[in-house]
Structure formats: structure tokens, C-alpha cells
Amino acid sequence: MLLNYNGQLIQQKDFADFNNRSFRYGDGLFESIRIINGELLFFHDHIQRLFSGMNVLKISIPEHWDANYLYYIICELMASNQITDSGRIRIQVWRDGGGRYSPGSNLPAFLIEVQALEESHYQWPSEGLTVDTANSVRKSYDQLANIKTCSSLTYVMASIEAADRNLDETIIENAYGKIADTCTGNLFIIINGKVITPSLRDAPVAGVFRYNLMEMMRQEKIICSEESISLAEVLAADEVFITNATRGIRPVASIRDKTFQSRMTKQLFDRFNRSLSATD
Fold it and tell me: What crossing angle do the helices spanning 208-219 and 43-56 adopt, rounded to 10°?
């Protein structure tokens, strides 16, 4: 498997930059981009989020790092690994140079990986998810809350807790007891036909799929909003689902002893897939 490390194609086995600040301090961020029918889904939204996150982290953006440059080297990497249909791209950017907590430089380094996937489109799962709230972690709201940093221990611990409790997912609350997101994506609830997702003020990651799903719903006149959501409101919902860029929409079957239907969720899933087909 070939990787792209700072603009050069290398073999995976040859990557050994153990002094990088992402490895030492989690000083960086990443993007996961889904490939469908050979296309980089929501590519410009992902790059905009990457650059916005780099600005937050005060990592310099070189002049040649525009969307065209990144698109070219990603396509080159896909071709070199013979991935032409479905897959997943991961872009990881970190602050290059030495230093300890105080960095010696704000210049970036990056690594791009590509992985083939079997599914050519988002797939509706055969079963809904079994979910509960995470007890081990909560999210604070600060300037890092909405970006995908390499400091992912909140999501790692929430995922470990899910596995320990035989759950598919855990819901992560913020420090004030409002819903932030889940260990793998953004949470949505449906109440009386209205679709609601936590406000960015409540510390979820600003998901690219989340954004594009909300845009589709607004265009199709489906009532949707971003609001503060409590666990009680989640449990009172008619339907609950989770989204991310790699897996799309996944319905929640149960939270504790509450079960949920997924009729409207499936309709949203079908509409979203159709909207992707229309842009192929």
C-alpha cells in the first residue's frame, strides 16, 4: 500500500516519523473522505473544514496548499493503489518541527492514506444500533470542540465503553448535560416529523455529512433545525439516527429500554442517496 507523505509517494512500511508532534502530543487534525464511484464525496467541504481547523490550531497553510493541489495528489494516490470505485481517504496534518508543548515551528506536515471499500454506495444496515450514553467522558465547549483533532481520547474512551457494555455506539454529552455527538458521528432525532441535531454551541464535531444532510433537507422543505437537546428529549423522540462521512445514515434501534422506529430515517437515507446519484 502506497501513502503520500509530504507530497511524496512512499510504501506504508517505510513511514517511520516517530518524532512528529501528532504522535507525541496529538498536535494536529484529520479528515476522512468517502470515495463513491471514483468521486471524492463533499471534497471541497472537507478541505474547507481542514483549513478552518488549521487556522484554529495556528498551523500555517502553505500557498500551494489549495483544493486543486490536494485533489491532484489524492487522485494520484488512488491511481497508484488501483482504487477506482469505492474507498476512504484519510488526510492527517500536524505541526512539523520539534519543541515540546511550545512548538518550534507552525509549518505543516501531512500524510494521506487510501483504503478500498466493498460498498459502492452508502448501505442501509440490516439492523439498527443499540446505544446508550457514555458514563466515562463528557465534552467541553471550546475552540477545539467542533474540529477533528488528533487528540481523540474522548472518542476512544467512549468507543471502549461501548464495547465493554456490548453497545454499538455511545452518546457523548457535554459538560452541561446536553447532547454533543456520539463516539463515531453526529446524532439526529425526529419528533413529530421535525429533524433536530445538536447545535454547534453544544460541542459536536462540525460533521461534513451533517452539514450536507441539513442542506438537502432545507432544499426539500423538510423541517429541520439545530438546537440544544437533552437525553430526555432523545428518549422522547420517534426516531434517532447517527451520521458520518464514511457510513452515511445509520438508524438507532434502542437506547436503554426505549425502542425506535426508522420509517422517516429510511426515507431520508433514500433521498440522500438519490441526491448523490443526481450529482454523479
Answer: 130
Please tell me the distance from the alpha carbon of residue 209 to that of residue 53, in angstroms, as a whole number.
17
Task: Give residue 177's pLDDT.
Answer: 96
Percent of the chain with pLDDT over 90: 85
The per-residue pLDDT for 108 is 95
Q: Are 103 and 95 in contact (CB under 8 A)?
A: yes
Helix (H) or strand (E) holding 153: helix 153-164
Report the pLDDT value the prediction gives residue 81, as an integer from 0 to 100: 95
Distances (CA, A) of 204 to 86, 103, 172, 208, 229: 27, 27, 9, 12, 12
Query: What are the DSSP E strand ranges found in 230-277?
Result: 239-244, 248-255, 258-259
Q: What number of CA atoms fall less than 13 Å from residue 120's CA on the CB side?
A: 6
d(CA 62, CA 107): 8
Other beta carbons less than 10 A from residue 277's beta carbon: 11
Q: Which amino acid is at 105?
A: S
Judge whether 269 and 123 are in contact, CB under 8 Å.
no
E strands along 63-158, which residues? 87-95, 108-116, 129-133
SS3 call for 206: coil
pLDDT digits (tens, 9 = 90+) for 17-45: 767 888 888 999 999 999 999 999 999 99
Q: Strand, coil or helix: what is 122?
A: coil
Distance from C-alpha of 268 to C-alpha of 258, rounded to nearest angstrom: 22
Confidence (pLDDT) at 10: 75
Q: Report the chain's mean pLDDT, rounded to a whole number.
A: 94
Q: Is the C-alpha dihedral spanning 32, 38, 41, 47 positive or negative?
A: positive
Asked if residues 28 and 92 have their Cβ atoms less than 8 Å apart, the reply is yes
Q: Kindly state the cell numbers that stand for 144.
A: 477545539
